[in-house]
Design goal:
CATH topology: SH3 type barrels
Mean pLDDT: 92
Radius of gyration: 16 Å
CATH class: Mainly Beta
Strand order of the largest sheet: 6-3-2-1-7
Number of helices: 0
Low-confidence stretches: none
Distance between the termini: 37 Å
Shape: globular
Structural class: mainly beta
Number of strands: 7
CATH architecture: Roll
Helix content: under 10%
C-alpha cells in the first residue's frame, strides 16, 4: 500500500485532447488542451480563462500595450469530450 506516495498524480486528460469546462466563469466552453501542469493539477485550454495582461514597451514591442493570455484552470473543472 502507498506505492505511489511520492509520484505525481496520473490524469486521463492529455495534451491535444478536446475538453469542456464544467465549472467556473467559462462553463460550457470547449477547447484544446495546450499543456497539462501535473504538479499543480491544472490544464491550459485554448480560448478558456483568457485574461488581459499589461505589457511594458520593449525592443521587440516598442508600443507596449495589452496582451491576452490563457491562464490555467484546475483539472477537476474540465471533462474530456469524445470525438
Amino acid at each position: 500500500m502507498g506505492a505511489r506516495k511520492n509520484l505525481p498524480p496520473k490524469f486521463k486528460i492529455k495534451k491535444g485532447d478536446t475538453v469542456k469546462v464544467i465549472a467556473g466563469d467559462d462553463r460550457g466552453k470547449t477547447g484544446e488542451v495546450l499543456k497539462v501542469l501535473v504538479k499543480d493539477e491544472k490544464v491550459l485550454v485554448k480560448g478558456v480563462n483568457v485574461v488581459k495582461k499589461a505589457v511594458k514597451p520593449t525592443e521587440q514591442n516598442p508600443k507596449g500595450g495589452f496582451e491576452y493570455i490563457e491562464k490555467p484552470i484546475h483539472i477537476s473543472n474540465v471533462k474530456k469530450v469524445e470525438g
